[in-house]
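User: Can you predict the 3D structure for this chain?
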Amino acid sequence: FSWIATMWGGSIRFGTPMLFSLGMIFLFTLGGVTGVVLANAGMDTALHDTYYVVGHFHYTMSMGALFSIFAGFYYWFGKMSGRQYPEGLGKLHFWLTFIGVNLTFFPMHFSGLAGMPRRVPDYPDAFAGWNMVSSLGSYVSGLGTLVFLLVLWRTFTAGAKVADNYWGEGATTLEWTLSSPPPFHSYDELPEIK
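Assistant: Here is the predicted structure, written as structure tokens:
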């Protein structure tokens, strides 16, 4: 709830960094809710070593971390590179990745509830349907990764130069007083904080 409280009362713009931040909250929360099921001893015994655990783990640990990393990357990329990334491609990257990971990992809960074990090289044909959906989701996520690489390429080859504080008047911390990208030695003397 502290993540949501941080945004409360703020002037929220749904740029690429905010989309990835909200996506992280959604995915981490969904993973946490599936973890509540595993807190029940009887369910945990039945679902232990099934794909339910794989889906739960990837929602909480992998996607929570990955979406946070992308949120930070897009927020700071202009400051680090001195160039503006293409916002439309950044949002496309978010939506492809968000849809892809949900298509990949959510069906794993159904496979696990049906009894599909993890750590096996092959599975019965009864699990083929949900595995096909997961495979399709992985291709969508892969396409999102290609879009991310395109974002990098476009930024470095054709990205417009960004201002020192391209996020506007709300960004008032010291790093936004520096040029983009910052010099190797930031301050010759201690800056005055107002």
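Residues 51-81 form the longest helix (31 residues). The two ends are 31 Å apart (CA to CA).
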